[in-house]
Design goal:
13 helices; 13% strand; 42% helix; 11 strands; TIM Barrel; 3-stranded parallel beta sheet; 6-stranded parallel beta sheet; 286 residues; alpha/beta
Length: 286
């Protein structure tokens, strides 16, 4: 069976990096997950096995210039990866306004061997086409690494949405046509705008980590079958959509089951659940 990859998870409460209670509380406040507790790696693996997921992509967050700390650091991502080789894909984060931003990113790619860059315009408070960000984009291109941008609304505190509406990323897609970019969360609630950008720019991807209401299956059916055209993904966008859960905010199994039950072709599901991620990451399929 094709490998299943969750392209969008947050490891802030993985037990191996939760030894400091003050830091854990900072993470709860920063992420708006006020009751979250530490989860042992065995629990994480059980969740993955139950949902049929082979690998998780771990996303850190550096908000040094905004809040004075890193929610999850690049070295913590590397620590988790080294504890379970083959189970995790680690991304880097860098606060784009720190004076050593490029050096931090170069170190993450060259020394920590991380697979890409995660940026959060709403939390880090930048517009995607701000030229101050271009050196980071150029660094990603130099190392052949992709970027996952938070896009659309965020449930985290202090995250103004106007920094991350999908159409703001178009200038980046135009200026950096060889840069692989994921607009996370399908840009929800601006899913039609996201779909339009995907249709126009082949270097853009998105993920299914939408901030859903109430019931994953009903929500996905509404978004992917009603708000978007019945066959938009199956016929036109199937090579640019990746599975993402946004775990721990949402349970992976519910989202996996919902996507499998709403009527996509099996070949489309194979792309969404793993093959597109391998292309995005520039990994070879096994």
């Amino acid at each position: 069976m094709p490998e299943v990859i969750d392209i969008h998870t947050h490891p802030a409460f993985f037990e191996p990096i939760c030894s400091n209670p003050v830091q854990v509380e900072q993470r709860r406040q920063a992420l708006g997950l006020y009751k979250a507790g530490a989860a042992a790696l065995n629990h994480i693996f059980n969740q993955m096995n139950y949902a049929g997921i082979d690998r998780l992509t771990l996303l850190p967050l550096d908000i040094t210039t905004q809040a004075g700390f890193e929610v999850v650091s690049n070295t913590e991502i590397k620590k988790i990866i080294d504890l379970a080789p083959g189970r995790f894909i680690g991304f880097a984060s860098v606060d784009p306004f720190r004076p050593d931003a490029v050096e931090v990113l170069e170190y993450a790619f060259a020394n920590l061997e991380l697979a890409g860059l995660k940026l959060h315009p709403s939390r880090q408070k930048f517009f995607p086409a701000n030229p101050d960000l271009f050196p980071l984009y150029e660094t990603c291109m130099r190392f052949n690494k992709p970027i996952i941008f938070h896009s659309g609304i965020s449930l985290e505190p202090d995250t103004p949405t106007h920094f991350a509406t999908p159409l703001l990323f178009e200038e980046v897609a135009i200026k950096f046509p060889r840069l692989r970019i994921c607009l996370a969360h399908f840009g929800f609630p601006w899913v039609k705008e996201t779909a339009a950008l995907l249709l126009k720019y082949p270097n853009l991807y998105t993920d299914t980590a939408l901030l859903y209401f109430d019931n994953a299956r009903e929500f996905y059916e509404h978004i992917f079958k009603k708000e978007l055209g019945e066959h938009w993904i199956d016929r036109s966008l199937r090579h640019q959509v990746m599975f993402g859960s946004n775990n721990p905010r949402f349970e992976q199994i519910r989202m996996v089951e919902a996507l499998r039950e709403i009527g996509f072709r099996e070949s489309t599901l194979d792309l969404i659940f793993g093959k597109n991620a391998l292309e995005f990451l520039q990994e070879m399929a096994g």
